[in-house]
């Protein structure tokens, strides 16, 4: 059965596979397979290094080490270097043999393994009890751990470099200062690295999650007092709180953000774009109304329906509801100055106020606003005529269409994508409602929930069911 080893170069994103027979493959053979699979040549101009995937800084430096199957290793190519007068390259993996490292440490480990092997090769007495065998197993483990400690005592100790670089006065050294534009994401400071943050040693410090303004134009940002934002925890009157995500939020619900210069800002609405959008919508509706009225005017002139025209308009225009008449002029025979005795109520009232309540047709005085008569017959006739022409021409009144759209949006909550919070139907298809006339039972803590359907309360004159 074929076994596999997975590897990946440090600059690659996709891992590769090496197939071989057996339960493991040596480092030497694995390097040879990698060179052949990637067509890297004779290996004279580079050196191939393999590292552990879980410890990228630990190298497979012994060519005779065996890597178990299904393992994942990291590969890296480096320039060939001269080491001890000889060129250290990967040519031996193509045409040479694995090198043998004769180190004293390996000799000690081999001797130790031979001793343990001799001890383990001793024949086991079948008459030994189970307890003695367990005791012997623990002794062997103790001896192996002692040998490991002896080997580790010969290793060189490697000390880690301190993470902080401080001067005698306790301040950060000049060479360790962060570059301009850097910000500590733990406390928001700009004068230290996050590894040198003074709040690292404070177990009671609650970090502030401050968002960056990446991608937001400066014209949509409003600067906030930096002192108020930083002292929000110590000043309860600032009305600056922290939400469930750890962000700073003011009383209006605006989330505080920070710019590259360290200023606290909040995002504001793009009112200019919104006004432009509203203006475009208004212009589109007005244009649609104008086109609609022009088509109806053509039909009115063609059909000779002059009573549908507004007599107070300087241009030809349809009457708008509500339509009223003056008490002195209600027939075509009474027309003198005007071409129609029906007017729009708002326009006629304004005209009467400006002309001392004088009739615009016959100049009669004392035509007051409360004496105007509604011409309901003409309004009904106009409505039927407009519906008939709409069906005939295939047009639609923009005012009626927009009103129906707003009503539909209001019934849906103004947003079709908004979550439906209505109660779902029961499994049997019945809605969650109570019988008519039955009040909602009060909820008492500790009691089980009331059923959705309760039997009706019997009348006082009927005995309860037993």
From TrEMBL:
Keyword presence, Disulfide bond: no
Gene3D superfamilies: Phosphatidylinositol 3-kinase Catalytic Subunit, Chain A, domain 1, Zinc finger, CCHC-type
Biased composition (Polar residues): 230-245
Cited SUPFAM superfamilies: Retrovirus zinc finger-like domains (SSF57756)
DWNN domain boundaries: 5-79
Any one GO MF annotation of this record: ubiquitin protein ligase activity
Region (Disordered): 81-130, 226-246, 389-435
Protein name: Protein Mpe1p
